Automatic annotation (TrEMBL):
It comes from Pisum sativum (Garden pea). This is Transposase. Residues 137-241 form the DUF4218 domain. Residues 414-479 form the DUF4216 domain. Pfam families: DUF4216 (PF13952), DUF4218 (PF13960).
Length: 598
């Protein structure tokens, strides 16, 4: 986890030219000249300043804004990560206050998407492959057979990075990436060994402290009490505990309303749509579905299967109710109470919520999502669909398809003896509106809505996804799956990837390194080398400060700052306590009330 953090800081720091994190600078360019490689990137003298030409990894100001704007618009589900938007500074075009888990999430999920529309193809491909390697090596389940392939691919990826990045980029942390595959072979998956669960538990222990003068004693006493209560609870497993709250994990799996509680009346059309879907997804009703279809086939031998399905959907509800109640009146013991309630149907008055927890996920409606800092309205479901080539097709095919959409309504229908939560969703049309691009990203067009007559699903079938804007096209959104996996035996695994994408290299990428120039030809936004400066006292109340400002506004930031007033606004310039002194100097008058002025 710390290797991933340090590698990410080196990559993003060099891309955004973050002071203290960037591996590119005057000394790095002089190293290239001394080694006799990439001499076209050598520093150039422009008057009294030193100019560094843009390398293949150097982003223009427009590209920096594109990357930072993408990260500033990301909204993730509850428990996925911290709020990524708070980590982005659009003013200085950099990332700030990054924790280890933030680096983990951005490196594996968002950085490959954020650079889709920037950088040359060869550099972008190498960075994407590095991110894919970390995603594969941090997966919950790893096939040992692919580990040798992972080892081979990461070596090629690092060699490609050496073709673009300066030698100063390849410190010991980047080198240790080569050994992660061997470590996985010897010690197992990384998620079994990293510190994220321990750091989360430390937060729990800190919450035990009620007397700040004795923090260790508070933790010990509270831990012993909880251990004793848990032992008694497990010992009396068949007894309902009194006074102890129900586990949030159990409530989130079984279903719990979170926000809003209104009673609304639904139309007969919506009620029948929901009721038909519930009947088709009940195991007890499944035999009666086949019986009804056989009855329709016997009464209409000349009709094709497509007509049988449509007629079944139209008249199954009244037929099922009459059939069950006729059997119930003749032999009540043959019909279960649940089957009788299903045949009778739900009430027209339903409970409406804005947030609901089920299957370990927290779901919001789109309206609630717009008011929240999180994105919990994305949903996907795998359902069986009938495929026909044309209207005249007599033999339709049935297959399972994944559908993606956004939750618009959360209703709980009352079936007298039990309740069933239902999600009303706006589904994306599958025909040419869902695609997988050559980079392996799943894209959907959220503006193309389909299946308006089949908008409802059972809440128990829902699986959470979320969408991020595709930087290459505003028309498309990229689908990402929630990383939350709930298992009743192991509990909340928190940071485990659900979708494991194979770390493979396309054949067309084998020769991606060519004899192209290592200088960016699409823009000339290089940077001026920043010289370290010194402060000399020049009489009472005056300071002589030696500085050298970059032409593109990329200036270093540190704890000791002064403000330089220019036409655009304020530039923050660092003061250093050692280094060489350029010839250009600025006199600063120190003021107690308003601060230093030029």
């Amino acid at each position: 986890m710390h290797i991933e953090k340090n590698v990410f800081e080196s990559v993003i720091g060099t891309l955004l030219n973050i002071q203290g994190k960037s591996k590119d600078g005057l000394k790095a360019r002089k190293d290239l000249i001394a080694m006799g490689i990439r001499t076209e990137l050598g520093p150039l003298k422009k008057g009294k300043r030193t100019y560094l030409p843009p390398a293949a990894y150097t982003l223009s100001r427009k590209e920096k804004k594109t990357l930072c704007k993408f990260l500033s618009e990301v909204k993730v589900p509850e428990g996925y990560s911290s709020d990524i938007r708070r980590l982005v500074s659009m003013k200085y075009l950099k990332l700030k206050s990054l924790k280890t888990h933030d680096c983990h999430v951005i490196m594996e999920h968002f950085l490959p998407i954020g650079i889709r529309s920037i950088l040359p193809e060869k550099v972008r491909s190498s960075i994407t492959m590095l991110c894919s390697f970390f995603k594969s090596i941090c997966s919950k389940v790893i096939n040992p057979a692919i580990l040798p392939m992972l080892q081979k691919e990461i070596i090629i990826t690092l060699c490609e990075l050496e073709m673009f990045y300066p030698p100063s980029f390849f410190d010991i942390m980047v080198h240790l990436v080569v050994h992660l595959v061997k470590e996985t072979q010897l010690c197992g998956p990384a998620y079994m060994r990293w510190m994220y669960p321990v750091e989360r538990y430390m937060k729990i222990l800190k919450g035990y402290v009620k007397n700040r003068s004795r923090p260790e004693g508070c933790m010990v006493e509270r831990y012993i009490v909880e251990e004793a209560i848990e032992f008694c609870t497990e010992y009396l497993s068949n007894v309902q505990s009194i006074g102890l709250p129900k586990s949030q994990l159990v409530e989130k799996k079984e279903g719990k309303n979170l926000i809003g509680n209104k009673i609304v009346a639904v139309s007969r059309v919506e009620r029948d749509q929901v009721h038909l879907y519930v009947l088709h997804n009940e195991n007890e009703v499944e035999p009666y579905v086949e019986i009804h279809k056989d009855v329709l086939r016997g009464l209409n031998p000349n009709r094709n299967e497509n007509w049988i399905v449509r007629e079944h959907n139209r008249c199954f509800i009244p037929w099922f109710k009459d059939h069950i109640y006729s059997k119930y009146y003749s032999d009540p013991a043959s019909i279960t109470e649940r089957l009788r309630c299903l045949a009778y149907g739900p009430s027209f008055h339903v409970f409406s919520y804005s947030a609901y927890a089920i299957n370990g996920y927290t779901f919001y409606t789109k309206e609630q999502d717009d008011k929240s800092t999180m994105q919990n309205s994305g949903v996907t479901v795998v359902a069986e669909a009938m495929h026909i080539s044309s209207v005249k097709d007599l033999n339709p095919k049935f297959a399972n398809l994944s559908y993606f959409g956004v939750i618009e309504r959360i209703w709980v229908f009352d079936y007298e003896k039990f309740q069933i939560p239902i999600f009303g969703c706006k589904w994306v049309e599958n025909n040419n509106r869902i695609r997988m691009d050559k980079s392996g990203f799943l894209q959907v067009d959220l503006n193309r809505v389909g299946y308006k007559d089949e908008s409802f699903i059972l809440a128990s079938q829902a699986r959470q996804v979320f969408y991020v804007n595709d930087p290459k096209s505003t028309k498309w959104s990229i689908v990402l799956f929630s990383n939350k996996v709930i298992d009743e035996n192991t509990g909340d695994q928190g940071d485990i990837d659900v979708e494991i994408e194979s770390f493979t290299r396309n054949d067309q990428d084998e020769n991606i390194i060519s004899n192209d120039s290592y200088i960016r030809n699409d823009h000339n936004e290089g940077k001026m080398a920043i010289m370290k400066s010194i402060i000399r006292a020049r009489g009472k109340g005056y300071l002589k400060v030696s500085i050298d400002i970059c032409l593109d506004g990329d200036v270093p930031l540190s704890s000791s700052l002064i403000r330089v007033d220019d036409d655009v606004g304020y530039l923050k310039v660092s003061l250093y306590d050692n280094g060489t002194c350029p010839s250009k100097q600025i006199s600063i008058l120190s003021s107690k009330d308003k601060g230093p002025k030029i």
